[in-house]
Design brief:
Elements: H1 3-11, H2 15-26, E1 73-81, E2 92-96, E3 122-126, E4 132-138, E5 143-145, E6 148-150, E7 153-159, E8 164-170, H3 175-180, H4 182-186, E9 197-200, E10 203-205, E11 208-209
Parallel strand pairs: 1-10, 1-11
Antiparallel strand pairs: 1-4, 2-3, 2-7, 5-6, 7-8, 9-10
The chain binds fe (ii) ion.
Length: 215
């Protein structure tokens, strides 16, 4: 471990970062136990997405464009913590998804659904001091695969302190589609940890727990 990160890790045990991280660890999880890990899901065929020269947190616009992506605009925020519930600051978070019509902007894409030139499709973020991230995007559309219909979902690849996780977020207001999604089903008992929480209409929260630890 380099001295800079070691210093960061020590400081993370002090003050509000600890309190906030512990909150995540205990809410909705086994009492007195470690937080439930966010389940691993396949990276899929559509990473890295076409970045269109813009990978900021607002995926509803490309660059300084005035046009807005088609679809229902939503916001998602969350915190990334390690397996002890400690916030992971400066984690890298790659996010990519289909547009509202269920199409990725990617050379592997064979869908005939329309491309949305105003949809960014990909974001690369870094968590802040508290391990927090947030995006503004549109609700992804469903799409067909050889295995069956995919429920609306968003891909994440998180690089933490010592581990990397590929995961997929599902929406609580699409429970029926989730239950029929082959990738959701494959998660088994851990599937509910892949579902975001609706804070209010169009506002979601999803905390990610990595198999991460500091020395
Ligand atoms: Fe996907």
């Amino acid at each position: 471990m380099d001295s800079f990160k070691k210093n960061l890790s020590r400081r993370a045990f002090a003050g509000s970062a600890l309190a906030a991280g512990t909150f995540v660890a205990t809410r909705g999880m086994a009492q007195n136990g470690p937080p439930a890990l966010t389940p691993e899901s396949p990276l899929g065929r559509f990473y890295p997405a076409n970045r269109k020269g813009d990978d900021d947190f607002d995926m509803t616009k490309v660059g300084g464009g005035k046009e807005v992506a088609s679809g229902e605009i939503i916001e998602i925020r969350g915190r990334i913590v390690d397996r002890n519930g400690q916030s992971i600051r400066r984690a890298t978070v790659d996010i990519w998804q289909a547009n509202a019509a269920g199409r990725y902007t990617h050379d592997n894409e064979q869908s005939t659904a329309p491309i949305d030139e105003d949809f960014q499709g990909f974001a690369r973020l870094e968590t802040n001091t508290f391990g927090d991230w947030n995006i503004k995007t549109i609700k992804p559309g469903v799409y067909e695969t050889p295995k069956g219909l995919r429920a609306p979902h968003i891909h994440f690849e998180v690089t933490g302190f010592s581990h990397r996780l590929s995961a997929q977020l599902y929406f609580p207001d699409h429970a029926e589609q989730n239950a029929a999604d082959p990738f959701y089903i494959a998660l088994g008992d851990s599937a509910p940890a892949s579902v975001a929480r609706m804070v209010s209409p169009g506002q979601y929260r999803w905390d990610i727990v990595l198999m991460d630890e500091r020395e």
